[in-house]
Amino acid sequence: MSFVSTLRQWDEAVACVEQRDTDSALRIFLNIEEKNSKIAFNIGCLYLNNNELDEAEKAFDGSIGRDEHLAVAFFQRGVTFYKKEKFEESLLDFQQAFKQLRGNQLIDYKPLGLRYKLYACEVLHNMGLVQAQLGKWEKAQENLLTALNFRAEAKFSHIDLALDAILKQKLFSLAEIKAGLLFKPNKHYVAELEKKDYLGKAKVVSSVVPADQFSGFAPLQPQVDNIPSTPKVPEVLRALEGEPHTVLYEFVPETKEELAVFPGNIVFVLQKGADNWASVVFNEKRGLVPYNFLEPLDITMTSKPMQIEELNENDDIPAPPRRAPPSKPESTEGLKTVKAEANNTGNFSGCIVKVHFQFTIAICIAHGQSYGVILQMISSKLKLPASALTLRYAKEDSNEKVTIEDSEMEAVWNSVNDDRLTLWCSVSEGKSVSPEKVVALYSYEASTPEDLDFKQGNVITVLSKVNEEWLEGQCNGKSGIFPSSFVKALNGDRQCE
Fold it and tell me: Residue 447: which of 483, 495, 484, 474 has the closest Cα?
């Protein structure tokens, strides 16, 4: 069976489920010859909703066999085993689902076509229930206490009720996926299923018959005899002006002159200044990027000889427009520290520090700085109190990560390689950091799936800063990005920056 046929049947079956015709949907799914892991998962969910547990187990076996990392399939098979009172097998599946979460609070399956988020706290909730069924009440209590630590939203209040039940050695309800939620095929692929007439109907536009009644044009004219002997020189590699470089680290701009880039991007360096900032072109935009964030890239092309230098004055290809590069930014916090160091010593050796937190940031700092200075710069960048942060680094020639103290700073600086240093940052145990809260000045309606919609007066938890104009936040159980101009600090009059 072709991919197109599979896609068409998949889309038809999902439509039947949306019309609550589950029998037809199941029949269509079963008729698909080449079932991928998502289709097998959908079959298992339909059988599970019909309480046909043996068939559901076989379907989830097939889904996991095709994708052994599909955590939601382990979760659903664990639910199936629980309803079949196979508690040992159910516990193993829930443990495997938790393992596939890899320490994250959740997995959002929306990009894969399933509008469902598998939360670690709900997996642990079900593990606690199975432990209780097996009479292991202490283990059940441990799982539920861990679930409280992983709980990301207030809507999971049933975990508190489950913990109260465990303390009284009573059972509680199983957490399940809502009936009717299935993996849907990629909407862009489905849109291509419709036949499109790109050519349209043929019509006469010119004829060799004089005064042809079907033509509104003069008859065909003789072809031109004098064909130019030398073809026009094509505009080859005009867009590739400059030296190609690969981006090594994410760079978040802090001024209008700077340019946002991400690891793996290819940029073209037009000019490198003595201050280690480079003027680059990326996606037809020009801006400044730290040169330490880039690495030269060797590109070999057969069309290389056709560059601009070979065009002579007689060629009718105009030169590309040029304008002066942006002025050097002065507001970068790390750059200010670098300038102060250079002014005091007359000689500066900079280092790029890559910091892994819930997200990754990079700062520029002078060699030999104390632990307090580094911690304060990272604290300012993350907008978190320095007292709540702990920094670690990887020992040289070892994967062991050691907590940094003042006494460790000599070893930390000795581990610098090619003016680059990697640190890991976490919130210290026993200390809590309250996330920033903002209040909506106006209502905002989402225009893309990545946006966060909210009403005027809603309180939003800020998760991160995307750039100067956009923030990432959480509101009413949903996460997404939104304009910073639509909100202000919860306990202040100015707008959130």
Answer: 483
